[in-house]
Automatic annotation (TrEMBL):
Pfam families for the chain: DHHA2
Alphabetized GO MF terms: exopolyphosphatase activity
GO CC annotation: mitochondrial matrix
Organism lineage string: Eukaryota, Fungi, Dikarya, Ascomycota, Saccharomycotina
Protein name listed in UniProt: DHHA2 domain-containing protein
GO BP terms in the entry: polyphosphate catabolic process
Start and end residues of each DHHA2 domain: 217-372
Superkingdom to which the source organism belongs: Eukaryota
Amino acid sequence: MLKGVTSFLQYLREVHIKELPVPSSVKVVYGNESADFDSVVSALAYAYCSFQMHPEDPLIPIVNIPKKELFLRRDIVRALERSKVSEDLLFFAEDLKSLKERFGPLTAVLVDHNSVEATMGPYIAAVVGVVDHHKDAGLHPDVKPRVIRTAGSCSSLVIRYWHKYLPVSAFKDIGLLCLGAGLIDTSNFSSKVEDPDKEALNLYEKLFPDLDRELFYKQIKRDKDDLSGFSIENILKKDYKQFEVQDSGAENKILIGISSVVKPLSWFYENFGGESRFRDECVKTQTQRMVDLYIVMTAWMDGGTFKRELVILSSAPELCQDIVENISDTLQLEDKSLTTKTASSPQYYRTFQQLNTSASRKQVAPCVSHAFQNIKL
Ligand SMILES: [Mn+2]
């Protein structure tokens, strides 16, 4: 029996894929399009654990971004280094495409999301399992596993699911990466902690009794917040999700994009030549992504206080105005825009302090969708 994440990935590349007949229904597991720490690690952990139970039927874990974009996620890059997992062994978006081209449409387990994103539609023939902590879209009712519930980190749900079948020792080589996801998602198990997170933490404590958790958390957090040398464009690209929303009559639909960033707007203004430059970059992203509504969510610690801001822009000012009115109460938005819309600028662009700091993108995305569905067009 092969041991370790590296051996597992090497086996997939050098044996499994080479021996598969063409065509085959290749099985993959992947996280959501933001490809954040939780998504990447949940996919890797799910595949690794599954392989220990069913070595005859491996799943290929996919990091759902082009390989050249991984460098933007320093928390992931450095955590992989610490766990001695080489980037070159991982499978990325381009590998997913070539797997499909070679073997035919793929079968997938979804982690850290529970419906196939539009961009993935052409590659995935069937979903065969879901483990997630986002709002349940009610799809894939009969798959096994189908674990969709609240948890600080999806990695905790993956750990909990496989711990039903595998002994503690089976998690040794993947545990540190999963702990990293748990630490990031729950701020060192101090917020959004649910039972699955507690159970996962219990396992990590057995695996790594001597680990200084606080120190480890600080290290990962520092890596995540380290944006030195990145352009605004790259920072906005680093943690991005988009989704389409239909109104209740299914007559109109809009595409919404949300970037999450770990620095306040003032940091962008200071480091990148002022407010207008930041605004221009947001407009550029919105145009390039071809989204009707583009949102930037900032989240950071101001001294000891956790703060959030929300930037919202659109080339459809009236629609945007209506949506903002609709979400304002729930998110407790306080307008702090420096510039106002002028007759010459058809663009809606506003910045807000989001006083409801407990609402992360997980809550803001459904809130905005709901607002659009409520608007009388
Ligand atoms: Mn997650």
